[in-house]
Amino acid sequence: SLLRLNYANDWSSFKEALSLYVSPALNMLYADQKGNIGYLGIGKIPVRAAGEGNIPVPGSTDQFAWTGYIPVSELPQIYNPGSGYIVSANNDMAGPGYHHFITNNWAPPDRALRIAELLEQSNAAGNISAMAMGKIQLDVVSMPARRTVKLLKELSVDTQRQRRAQQLLMNWQGEMSEDSQAATIFNAWVRHLRTRLFAIRLKTDWNRRIQEQYIAGLSEQVALDDLYSAVHDKDSAWCQQDKKSSLPDCRTVVLQSFDAALDELEKLQGPDMSQ
């Protein structure tokens, strides 16, 4: 497949060469000297009689057997889209209307959304250049952080220290640069919030060390958007938005984790937040 790809000279021969490709499944991007661009998902993707292959199933019957592979002509593809560009960042390229199951394990869409945002900004400024592409490649903005920090920006705080830290976060747009006070505060807070929010409900006996490590590992891996939903959603199973629930108050959990983060940073760097 890859040998033939070296001799491809248009979209048709590009697809023909990659129709022989087996594994691992990949996203392939295409551009030619005439200005055409394309995307092609490649690899042999099984079609299953039932299930999605993410858990063990009985093998004694054909109930869950593979019935073949997604036909090459039906693999996800894009050619000369109206937007004028294609963004592929391990996100779901097939889209919601795609009629074959590929995986539930796509990367979150945020990298792709950020790339598209920067492309649109560069286009509006008339600056689609190699330098603009380099800035996109080196971008350090986290879109989930941009959303999640609203929990702190909109929080009614109690102390002068909390207000100073909150003020540093007010104009922050999720830039994870190494010299950012806001990013430092945010990341320390998120770590403490995960621990406090989920430890309330996910408890083990004091002597069950292995299980405790496993549960702690689960909470540490919770994505930022899921963490935001766990605190923000009115029907959250993790903290209460009103007094009708036996769960701890969401605001209290956020404030406690905020203070724990500031305590940690003071211990490491002293009370001056500029440091």
Overall outline? globular
As a whole number of angstroms, the C-alpha radius of gyration is 24 Å
Discrete helix count: 11
What string, H for helix and E for strand, traces the elements in order? HHEEEEEHHHHHHHHH
Strand order of the largest sheet: 1-2-5
Percentage of β-strand residues: 5-15%
- Tell me roughly what share of residues is in helical segments: 40-55%
- Strand element count: 5
Average pLDDT confidence is 91
Oligomeric state of this protein: single chain
Q: Can you walk me through this structure?
A:
- The protein is mostly helical.
- It is built from 11 helices and 5 strands, in the order ααβββββααααααααα.
- The chain has helices spanning 2-5, 11-18, 110-124, 130-137, 143-148, 150-153, 160-170, 181-199, 209-220, 224-232, 250-269; strands at 26-31, 37-42, 46-48, 66-69, 77-79.
- A 3-stranded antiparallel sheet has the order 1-2-5, covered by helices on one side.
- Helix 8 crosses helix 11 (250-269).
- The mean pLDDT is 91.
